[in-house]
Amino acid sequence: MRVLLLGPYPPPHGGVQTNLVAIRAFLLKRGDSCAVINITRHRTADADEVYYPKGPLQLLQLLARLRYDVLHLHIGGMLTSRLLALSLACTLRPGTKSVMTFHSGGFPSSPEGQSLGPASFAGCVLRRFDGIIGVNQEIVGFLHKMRVPAHHTRCISPYAFLPNDPSASSLPAPLAAFFATHDHVLISVGLLEPEYDLALQIDAVPHVRQKFPNAGLLLIGSGSLEAELRARIAANPCDPHILLAGDVPHAATMEAVSRSRLMLRTTLYDGDALSVREALQLGTPVIATETAMRPAGVHLMPKSDAQALLRAIEQELQQPAVREERASGDESNLQSVIDFYQDLLKAKTG
């Protein structure tokens, strides 16, 4: 089987990237062929059948040139006109099966999602795919609302995996120094964007340190708010105890999560975050804004509630630190993706 994956490819590492990398690794382990086209602004040299087109024209040329049986597009966020145009292009090649995974867990309940109907351009494009994977039941329900046939949809949760790279035990120097000087590290892993409500975390640090003087906050990720957040941190009385680390290699990020006392996931808008599942796998407790997609074991809090966040942090830090690392060998969701491919290909030839 020859598969072409389209989506964000690391670096940087994020939830969608993690799932895409896991699917590719699983396919290659099976002996299948799998190429990747990165569709983000982050580019490097093409290598090992991973392509970084410089614009829409190069991307379309790759779609026309590469040979594949299944084309699998991964998207998150909003269904923008750009993404819908790309989605339409992915469904036009004859003789292949087109698949989309829609990772944006909270989209169906957003104003944009609520405004869409079956007759919209988005609805028409979605129905052109041979198969669509939703990462939760809310997305699958949205697809049915768009009149995507039920037999064309699957609900498959994304795969959160632990790295096997021995270099995972090494941290970049700034992170290593931060852990050396702080006993209770609170960590946040995600984009530096408005929907992650990171100001709430930064403003909580002085209050946390009143009861836990050796606490610190480590923020990993990049985004449009970087300059604004750095200024907010500089104005915070606990500036030395807040580290905005930028993008960090995935293995080192996982090591940082494993060493942290708590992960914080404060969001205004969120789906099924892979960073949350990875933290739980590593045995790191998670405090997260309540959504319908949180896995079991997460300490839930209301959106944008500073007092609730402080109460949750205090409650968790008062508990003894117990590490119960969870097994990471379950690849059943990856196998479900492959089974979906094979069902579609059988339908093609049957």
Keywords summarizing the entry:
350 residues, alpha/beta, Rossmann fold, 2 domains, seven-stranded parallel beta sheet, six-stranded parallel beta sheet, 13 helices, 39% helix, globular
Annotated CATH homologous superfamily of the largest domain: Glycogen Phosphorylase B
> Ends: how far apart?
16 Å
* Helix and strand run: EHEEHEHEHHEHEHEHEHEHEHEEHH
Percent strand equals 15-25%
Please state the CA-atom Rg, rounded to the nearest Å: 21 Å
Structural class: alpha/beta
Largest sheet data:
7 strands, parallel
Q: What is the name of the CATH class of the largest domain?
A: Alpha Beta
Catalogue the unreliable spans: 162-168
Helical stretch tally: 13
Strand order across the biggest sheet? Answer: 3-2-1-4-5-6-7
The helicity comes to: 25-40%
Average pLDDT works out at 90
Write down how many β-strands occur, each being a DSSP E stretch of 2 or more residues.
13
CATH topology term of the largest domain = Rossmann fold
CATH architectural category of the largest domain: 3-Layer(aba) Sandwich
Number of domains: 2
Shape: globular
Topology diagram in text:
Blueprint lengths: L1 E6 L7 H16 L2 E6 L11 E2 L4 H10 L4 E6 L5 H10 L6 E6 L8 H5 L5 H6 L4 E4 L2 H9 L7 E3 L17 H9 L2 E6 L8 H14 L3 E6 L5 H9 L7 E5 L3 H10 L2 E4 L8 H8 L4 E4 L9 E3 L4 H12 L14 H18 L1
